């Protein structure tokens, strides 16, 4: 039996796009990964709210048929 060894970096090579923006003291980070039937968007908002010492760390994942960061 003849086969080809695939290293972990090659096996995990996925199409991926990232976008980050700071709004005041908050940071918004969006990561899109291509999956079998579309795109998975992970949005993470973290930092301190304006005028407050309250720390925010929220993550949301959504599915899209088209790449939401294509523009």
Notes on the protein architecture:
The protein is mainly β and 71 residues long. 6% of the residues lie in helices and 55% in strands. A hairpin with a 2-residue loop joins strand 2 (26-35) and strand 3 (38-48). The longest helix is centred in the first third of the chain and has 4 residues, at 8-11.
> Main β-sheet, in a few words?
4 strands, antiparallel
Query: Span from first to last CA?
Result: 46 Å
| Overall residue-averaged pLDDT value | 84
The helicity comes to under 10%
In terms of DSSP E residues, the strand content is over 45%
- The strand count comes to 4
User: What general outline do the C-alpha atoms trace?
Assistant: elongated
SS-based class: mainly beta
Unreliable stretches covering 5 or more consecutive residues: 1-11
The helix/strand series, from N terminus to C terminus, equals HEEEE
Summarize the structure in short.
The chain has 71 residues and is mostly beta strands. It is built from 1 helix and 4 strands; from the N terminus they run αββββ.
């Amino acid at each position: 039996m003849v086969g080809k060894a695939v290293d972990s970096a090659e096996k995990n090579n996925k199409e991926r796009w990232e976008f980050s923006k700071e709004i005041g003291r908050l940071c918004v980070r969006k990561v899109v990964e291509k999956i079998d039937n579309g795109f998975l968007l992970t949005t993470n908002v973290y930092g301190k709210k304006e005028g407050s010492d309250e720390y925010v760390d929220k993550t949301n994942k959504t599915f899209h048929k088209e790449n939401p960061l294509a523009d």
